[in-house]
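Morning!

This is the sequence you dropped in the shared folder:
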Amino acid sequence: MGQYETFLETARAVALEAGTLLRDRLDRPNEVRFKSEINIVTEADTAAQALIFDRLSAAYPGHDFLAEEGLKAFSGAEYRWVFDPLDGTTNYAHKLPVFCVSLGLERRGALVLGLVHNPMTGDFFWAEEGGGAFHNGRPIRVSAVADLGQSLLATGFSYDVWTTRCNLAEHERMMLRAQGVRRCGSAALDLCFVACGRFDGFWELKLNPWDTAGGAVIVREAGGRITDFSGRPVDIYRPEVCASNGLIHGAMLEALRGESGKG
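The structure's back. Tokens below.
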């Protein structure tokens, strides 16, 4: 049993319950509120967040919490849960069944546990520090693709892309160097797909801590590399992320920075 196994079991049960809530509400009328021109929140987001916070705070009353829909409960505790109750809200609002529940756990500022649950497929991805990464109980590893030109990548776009054009130039450079680029609409699932080798790499700008807290641990424990665009170890409180199998990481960073290079 790993050091964080009890936390993991609790997180799995909570994610399953929240995922069931999301799945059950998917085809019902859902009130959608616009936080900006294209950034939305649904009733399901807030209901799932309340459920997760209620369950985790009851189980661990001394822990801190940070989540997307305005939850920030800090006391300087040793442990902090960072979670997204519904990663892929735009997909969800359009009844597109590509979304997930994502939970990460920090200990003294370091990510030690991550769990991502897709309630539409029943998939669970998880990892704990030093214990490897798993998909539905089976160990997973990143891909062995070593050439960016043979790589399938994933990305996403920030909610202010209409005005800032954020990531459009980076996307064009990657499209011209990689075999293909996909946009699924859930950063947490994209990171898990890197971890299990479905994608060879992922990048995005203007992410929030809850977008990456769960998936970052899973990529790392699956043997991947996850950094910012300068190659520094990932910090979920910085807004840019580049994740890969490690073999194409340098080439991805070159492309993101607009440097020449191939492979």
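Headline: The CA atoms of residues 190 and 202 lie 7 Å apart.

More detail when I'm at my desk.
O.
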